[in-house]
Design brief:
Elements lengths: L1 H19 L9 H8 L2 E6 L4 E3 L8 E7 L2 E7 L4 E7 L4 E2 L2 H4 L3 H4 L3 E5 L3 E7 H10 L1 H24 L5 H8 L4 E2 L6 E3 L5 H8 L3 H13 L3 E4 L2 E4 L2 H8 L1
Antiparallel strand pairs: 1-8, 2-7, 3-6, 3-8, 4-5, 4-7, 9-10, 10-12, 11-12
């Protein structure tokens, strides 16, 4: 019994320490952190291991990434495109499900895999929502988190130009995959410009210009017969 109690105490201490490293939980009392720990599951995944398959994620929990990174692939039914995003250490993923009604339907199109050896905190959505109602300091941190994300998104929208090339980038993401040897993001075999143009619904010259821009800006580089993607986050931003 003593050994079990000691093990549980050590696990609780690990959770508290992990929570305290995340900006979302900064400056919260030990009591509030302890309350959060009651609805947290600490999980470990090896690189390449599946966290959620497509259609499996129901929004009943959200994640805080403690170490490593995970690949989030979002399928867009309207275009058939697959958007790929890296979610790294310190990030909060899918917390909008806690407060956004109906958002869980969108996450049915999401799959999540461990890109590197991954440690995450899976936080029960319903319990967390109830706790924010009782703890104003926690709700303040949540509001600051969403305000920061909204400000960053608005700035991107203000500086980005809506152009046909965006459709090319969206389609291109369908062909991006992780190289199992080098760890680089790449398009192993580039489709012909005409095929990309037809799928994106743009002129072939637009496709050529879009790919040239990626190379010129250092987002991608040629690696016959494909491309190496050096800045996947930037490519995702251009596709949005």
């Amino acid at each position: 019994m003593l050994e079990t109690a000691t093990s549980l105490h050590a696990q609780s201490g690990d959770l508290l320490e992990s929570l305290a490293t995340l900006p979302l939980f900064h400056d919260l009392s030990d009591k509030i952190l302890g309350n959060i720990c009651e609805s947290v599951d600490l999980r470990h995944y090896d690189a390449g291991q599946t966290v959620y398959t497509l259609g499996q994620f129901d929004g009943s929990e959200f994640f805080a990434v403690i170490s490593g990174s995970m690949k989030v692939s979002t399928f867009e039914p309207e275009t058939g495109a697959m958007l790929i995003e890296e979610v790294g250490s310190g990030a909060i993923f899918a917390m909008e499900l806690v407060f956004g009604r109906g958002a869980s339907d969108a996450f049915q199109h999401v799959s999540v895999t461990a890109d590197e050896d991954l440690v995450i905190l899976a936080i029960d959505a319903e319990s967390f929502c109830l706790l924010t109602n009782r703890r104003p300091s926690l709700m303040r941190n949540v509001a600051m988190h969403f305000a920061g994300e909204l400000a960053a998104r608005r700035f991107r929208n203000m500086t980005a130009e809506a152009r046909p090339e965006q459709r090319v980038f969206t389609i291109l993401l369908k062909f991006v995959e992780r190289d199992g040897v080098t760890g680089q993001w790449r398009v192993p075999h580039m489709p012909k410009h005409r095929a990309l143009a037809e799928e994106a619904g743009v002129e072939e010259s637009t496709t050529a210009a879009a790919l040239a821009m990626l190379i010129q800006d250092g987002i991608a580089r040629r690696d016959y017969p494909g491309l190496i993607i050096d800045d996947l986050n930037r490519l995702n931003d251009l596709a949005k």
